[in-house]
Structure formats: structure tokens, C-alpha cells
Specification:
binds pyridoxal-5'-phosphate; alpha/beta; four-stranded mixed sheet; about 40% helix; Aspartate Aminotransferase, domain 2; about 450 residues; Aspartate Aminotransferase, domain 1; 2 domains; seven-stranded mixed sheet
Length: about 450
């Protein structure tokens, strides 16, 4: 988008000249100038050099209400004092012992206490590593080769998970992914229990079913609890393991994650983000008999070959310190409750703006997430229809018009609010009334600008 084409873009450029200069440098280093696809923005992203609580500041000194939330890792917002103190204390004691340490035990015990399925815990460095390990464990445990996944659900970026998320819904591999890998992943339409039942009945090679239990991409395509319950019954009947990917929902929906809210305990769960309090970290947790495949002694006793698992940063002391401080606060319950309540009020307030401005979009979401659906076909649906899982996933997985999505993000940034790339975001325990008021004001002003530019 070149200067002069759009007042929204021009205003953004005027506010962010230092970010523009940094982006020029970044383009010489990184593909597209970014280090994560979700951070890509035309004409360039903001560069941030400070954050506190629910806010962050860019290199030109502009302040933003933050709905990127450390990609969902920061339930307690930025620099929560107890978390900072724990990390500082540990920093002085060492960042990597290359050895066992007591903090990892304390961290694992907290996970066991909070997450119903966590009979046994193995830390990894990220959510992607966690889902990779979970699949391997499931295949080895069941002696079956295939995985069933739901179209649109995101489980990280490794080969088994790279297609059928935002494209390739027919199950064909995205470039670089082996056809043999894709052939061992069966994609099912989300929310359709008959389809899942039919696949599991016809294919007895399926070792496990993995699902984001609150629906694809942070509840962008919500699923009903009844579907998840039926899936749990089905997997048990068919001898496939059920894996909840709670990288997002874990410690967010409730201290025990979606599984605690639903009262459904999966065989295995993958965790990351809030788990490590804003530092890198992930985990696979689950049934002892499955996790025992990682146990030197028990695997041998069971006459099974142990599954090897390494990882330089597994349970590193800094992540453990941040994780413990965070989970201790989360355990009390108020943090999740506040983030959920704030999100509900935010969704309601933004929908009121849409009504006032006569814009046929819908803001929806569950727990502490919100999504802005730009409703390109003018569907007569409500947030409640979407939240109860009644609308086909492809409606939400079809990206909005690029110029509209970009200008919405730039317009919000121009009014001091950062929403995440999928047009929404996670809320936190520290978003407050002022954040809410600023977000509402920014949304309403941005809608007016979009209308003036003929985007809506
Ligand atoms: C549900 C889910 N699973 C897995 C991942 C991958 O986690 P990570 O980015 O830590 O590799 C993500 C990341 O957003 C996620 O949302």
C-alpha cells in the first residue's frame, strides 16, 4: 500500500516512522521482515520496545492496549510483578544447569494438581514440540499409524499439522510436507460427530484423535461440549486415544483448562503458552501407561522400546520459575474469571458499536477470546449461532478481504489498540475499564474511517 492511497494507511505511517525504518532493516534479514507469520502486516508492523500490564509501546512512543497477549501466553499481562520477581531471582542463580532441578518438580506438580488428565508430565520447549511428541506417543502406544485431526484446528507447524488449517482442507500436503505423512493424517469436518464416527469405523489404523477442545484457532470456529463428549465416547469405543490440545485453552478457560470446564478427561493433553508464564515452554501430560513409554524402567518392564525424547530447553529453570509463579496465581481462579468476564463484556460492547454504526459484522467468541467476523456474504447469523457451533468452519476460515483486514488493524493501531492478525485476540486478567473504553472508541472511529474509504 503506497502513500496517498488510503488516509488510514497514511495516518499509520505518520505515527510510526521509526517502525518503518526498522522494517526496512528487517527485510534485509528475515523473509517478509518478520519472525512469525502472525506478525506480518502491510505496509510494515509496529516495533515494540516496552510493555507493562495490558499495554505496550512502540519505538515511536505510541501506546497500545494489547490484544496480542504474547500470542496468548500472557494471561496475567506483561511483567506481572510476582512473575518478574521469580525470573529475576532465578536469573541470578543460573539459566541452564544441564541437570535436574527442584523447580521442574514443583512446576510439574502444579500441572498435575491443576490439569485433570496430568497423571504424568513431560516438558518440551513449545506447543509444536508437545503435539509432535503426543502423536508419536499415541502411535507407539496403540501400534497404529494414523491420526485424525479436525479441519481448521491448529496444532503448531510440524509436518503432521501443516495442512488443513487455513488451506488444503482436502488433506493434500502443503509444500515441503511428505505425501506419506499427509496420507497418515485423516482430516474430519469439525463439529460433525457422524463424520468422525464413520472415519473411525472404517479405518482401524487411527491411533489418536487430536482436537482444540474449544474449537479451531482459539474458538474461531467454536465446538459444542456435546460434540467433545461424543468424541470422547467414540474414541474410547474405537480404541483410539483422545488428545486435547490445550496449548491455548490450558490455564485460560479455567485453572484446569477446557477439560475441567467440560468435565471430560482426555488420554493426553498438550500444553504451552500460559504454562510457562510468558517464557518458552510446553508439555505433554497424560495417562501413566501412555507416558510410561518415556520411562526408562517402566518401558523395559513392559517389554516395550522406550521412546527417546531430548530437548535442550526442556524445563529450563527460567521458564520453570515463571511457570510456577504464574500457575500459583492461576490456581486461585480469579485470573481466568476476570479474563473471561472482560472478554464477554468486550464482545458485547463491540457488538453494540456494530449495531450503532449499522455494520453487519459480528464479534463473537468463548472464554477469554474475541473474534471479529466481517461477514462478507451478509449472513443473517448471530454471535450465539456461531458460538453454538452451527456455522460451517469454512465461513470463518475464508480470510477477509486483505485490504479490509489490513486497514482494520492499522485503523485500530492508529487509535491505540493492537488486535491480533486473525482480527481478534485473547484478553487477560489485567485488562480494565479504561482498556475497554479505549477499545470501544478505537473500534467505532475505525469503522467510520473504513466507511469513508469505501471498505464497508
Ligand atoms: C492450539 C495450539 N496448539 C499448538 C500451538 C503451537 O504452539 P507453539 O507456538 O508454542 O509451538 C499453538 C500456537 O498458537 C496453538 O494455538
Amino acid at each position: 500500500m503506497s502513500p496517498g492511497q488510503s488516509p488510514i494507511v497514511d495516518a499509520y505511517r505518520r505515527r510510526t516512522p521509526t517502525s518503518a525504518r526498522l522494517y526496512e532493516r528487517a527485510r534485509g534479514v528475515f523473509p517478509s521482515g518478520v519472525t512469525h507469520d502472525g506478525r506480518y502486516l502491510e505496509p510494515y508492523p509496529i516495533y515494540v520496545n516496552r510493555a507493562a500490564g495490558s499495554r505496550k509501546w512502540d519505538v515511536d512512543g505510541n501506546e497500545y492496549v494489547d490484544y496480542a497477549g504474547g500470542h496468548g501466553a500472557l494471561l496475567l499481562g506483561h511483567n506481572y510483578p510476582r512473575v518478574v520477581q521469580a525470573v529475576e531471582q532465578q536469573l541470578a542463580l543460573g539459566t541452564h544447569y544441564g541437570a535436574c532441578h527442584e523447580l521442574e518438580i514443583q512446576w510439574g506438580e502444579l500441572v498435575q494438581k491443576l490439569v485433570p488428565s496430568a497423571a504424568s508430565v513431560r516438558f518440551t520447549s513449545s506447543g509444536t514440540e508437545a503435539t509432535l511428541l503426543a502423536l508419536r506417543l499415541a502411535r507407539a502406544f496403540r501400534g497404529r499409524s494414523k491420526i485424525l485431526r479436525f479441519a481448521g484446528h491448529f496444532h503448531g507447524w510440524h509436518d503432521h499439522m501443516a495442512f488443513g488449517v487455513g488451506s488444503h482442507f482436502d488433506g493434500t500436503p502443503t509444500p515441503g510436507v511428505l505425501a506419506e505423512v499427509a496420507a497418515n493424517v485423516v482430516l474430519a469436518p469439525p463439529g460433525d460427530i457422524e463424520a468422525a464416527a464413520e472415519i473411525l469405523a472404517r479405518d482401524d489404523h487411527i491411533a489418536a484423535v487430536i482436537i482444540e477442545p474449544t474449537g479451531a484457532s482459539w474458538g474461531q470456529v467454536p465446538v459444542r461440549k456435546e460434540f467433545v463428549q461424543a468424541l470422547a465416547d467414540l474414541t474410547r469405543k474405537r480404541g483410539a486415544l483422545l488428545i486435547f490440545d490445550e496449548v491455548i485453552s490450558g490455564f485460560r478457560c479455567a485453572p484446569g483448562g477446557a477439560q475441567a470446564v467440560y468435565g471430560i478427561t482426555p488420554d493426553m493433553t498438550t500444553l504451552a503458552k500460559i504454562l510457562a508464564g510468558g517464557l518458552p515452554g510446553g508439555a505433554v501430560v497424560g495417562r501413566r501407561d501412555v507416558m510410561d513409554l518415556l520411562d526408562h524402567r517402566r518401558a523395559a518392564e513392559a517389554g516395550r522400546e522406550k521412546i527417546s525424547h531430548h530437548g535442550t530447553y526442556n524445563a529450563n529453570p527460567l521458564s520453570a520459575a515463571a511457570g510456577i509463579a504464574t500457575l500459583e496465581i492461576v490456581a486461585a481462579g480469579d485470573a481466568c474469571r476476570h479474563a473471561n468476564d472482560y472478554a464477554a463484556r468486550l464482545r458485547e460492547a463491540l457488538n453494540r458499536v456494530l449495531v450503532d454504526e449499522k455494520v453487519p459484522w459480528i464479534v463473537y467468541g468463548t472464554f477469554s477470546g474475541f473474534h471479529i467476523f466481517t461477514n462478507p456474504d451478509g449472513r443473517k447469523i448471530t454471535a450465539a449461532d456461531i458460538e453454538s457451533g452451527q456455522v460451517d468452519y469454512r465461513v470463518f476460515k475464508t480470510p477477509p478481504r486483505p485490504s479490509l483486514a489490513t486497514k482494520l488493524r492499522l485503523g485500530m493501531l492508529g487509535h491505540g489498540v493492537e488486535i491480533f492478525s486473525w482480527l481478534g485476540g485473547p484478553t487477560s486478567a489485567v485488562h480494565d475499564e479504561d482498556d475497554l473504553a479505549r477499545t470501544v472508541e478505537a473500534f467505532s472511529r475505525t469503522l467510520r474511517l473504513l466507511r469513508e474509504e469505501g471498505e464497508i
